[in-house]
Each structure stands twice: as structure tokens, then as C-alpha cells.
């Protein structure tokens, strides 16, 4: 309980959904994430109606998979982003994307406050660290890890050689890693 | 639930991980990546860290209005029964491999020399198989026309590229000719994905290639 006080509102709501099946908390997650996920889907080329259907699928999956949310490993935004990414990809594939085994649930284990807080802090600093990247690196990371565009497509779209795209992504990731390490207590 | 490994030496590359995440990797390779992440906490963390970047960007991203009634519809849908649970791992086979096996143990087919295989999928994009190699036995020397990923699930093997144990992935490109030999002790069971048929050097295996789809 003392740990959850320090969590972001979103992560706290997701834990309430996980542990208490709290519908009001779920409603708040929907109000925050649904418009953002929909905007992302529209940008990727879906039409209004289908974008909203996908958002419904994703948010329903959040409700059903909430038992898998582990604040030692992710914050609510990152975890929900992952669910949305998988859904988007499956729409475009013949076979659903093979998924890693789910982590075992450890309901009896007390949350490790230090680790949960460190992750929460990292998540908070991530946005700031992203803002400090060079515009080229930020753009490359956004294309790769938000719009989820394959490297070769990014290269086609920008007219830049594939090697340049790859190195911008790698340098951006290295820079983030470095920035996050420097804020660690 | 399958045991995860802590001493993995050979991981998937950044390029493979990113291609997996965008869904552009052929199915056979996706299964190897998902199976490796199932066993490897380090690569699971690399994967999740990328989702954290996506989540952080979501916060500052634009919004699009949700139609009225959508919220009521989803609140009502929460009552519906949950979807069937995700497949689980069993024995040495992590969940993504069990999913390919349809939840059943492998049905091995003899290839000669005590080597067995089960083909899990094969199409124009590539093929995925489980291989069973008795201790000390070698897979015939071969080259690749494309990419081959081999994930060890039990035992070990060694070749010109090094030694590979449970959880390790060998990434072999078309410039590699190699002859993996199973280590002593347990039989080596591995999951192998290729995007083109292998080229065997010995006479017999290449005659068998079309028959066994090696
Ligand atoms: Zn790994
Ligand atoms: Zn090979």
C-alpha cells in the first residue's frame, strides 16, 4: 500500500483493476488511453470506425490481462502500449504474432518497494530524456518504437541509407540508457 | 511454466528484436525470438524497455475524440467471459513452442543416425522445426542460402561459432558453413528456423533434403 502511493495515477488504477477488478479505475484508464490509442491508429492509416474497434479490443485485453501487470517491470503506459502494439501487428499479419511466455504470477510476494519506485522514476525520466535527444535521434526512435515502422521502411520514407537509420536508433537508445543511468540514485 | 536461464551467452540482435516487434519477421523467426525472450530475462527486459519508450511517447501524443457510447459499450463488455488463457510452457518447451506444437508433445520423425525432427511450419517465407540430436552426434555440415536461427532447448551443441546451451541462440547467415555437434550428456533438442532450404555438402543428405524438407 505504501508503495502504490508513490506510483503514477495510471499505474495505481491498473493495479486496482488487477487486484480489485475496479471498474471506476478501468474507466479512468479508458478515458486516458482510448483517445491516445485512437489518434495513433488513425495516423497509421485506419479509418475512424475501425480505429475505434481496435481501441475497444485493446482496452478489453487490458481488463482481461491485468493479472499480468507487474509494476516491477513496467509502468501502466508501457504495459498498455505493448498490448496495443501486438493488436496492431496482428491486424496486419496472416498468423498472429508468436508471443513470449507470460511471466509467472507471484501474488504472495510483497512488492519490492525499491524496485517498483526505481522503475516508476525511470518511466518519469524517460519522457524528459527523450526530449533531450537530438531531433534526428528522437525522430528515429519515434518512428521505430512508437509508429513501429520497420527500419527499411523508415529508410525509404526518409530517403536516408538504412545504415544511417539504424545508427540513429542505436545512438538514441544508448543516449537514453546513459541519461537514465545518470538519474539513478 | 518453463524455467528461465540465467547464464545465456548468445542473444538475439537488436535488428531481429526490432523486426519481431514491428511484425515484419517471418513466422518461423518470430517463434524463435518469442521462445528466446521466454527463456532470457535480459532480452525480455530489452523488449519491455522498448514498450516503455512507446508508452512515454503515448503520454505526449495527440488524442482523437472517442464517439459517444463507446465508453458505455466497453463497460458493458467487461461482463463477457475472458478469452481462453494463453498456452503454457511444458518441460523444455516454452509457451511459444507449445503453441506451435498444438499443446502436444513432439511427434518425432527419424532422420537417420539417431537424429529426429518435427517440422512445425513450412511455407515460402521459411520453415521451423524441432531437432533432436543424440549426445556426440553431428548434424551434417551445411551452408545457408539465408538466415538460420537455432535456439537450444535442452543439452548443448558446439560448432565453429562457439558453444551453445539452453537458451542460447545461434544466428547463422549465408556466409557460414557449419557442423553443429551435440554435447555430451543429454540429447540436444533445438528449435531451428530458416528462410531458405539448407545446403548440405554430403551426398546423401542433399538427396534426402526434398524428402525430409531439411
Ligand atoms: Zn537474450
Ligand atoms: Zn546451420
From TrEMBL, chain B:
InterPro entries, sorted? Anti-sigma_ChrR, Anti_sigma_zinc_sf, ChrR-like_cupin_dom, RmlC-like_jellyroll, RmlC_Cupin_sf
Q: Which SUPFAM superfamilies match?
A: RmlC-like cupins
Q: Where is the ChrR-like cupin domain?
A: 107-194
What Gene3D superfamilies has UniProt attached to this entry?
Anti-sigma factor, zinc-finger domain (1.10.10.1320), Jelly Rolls (2.60.120.10)
**Record protein name field:** Transcriptional regulator
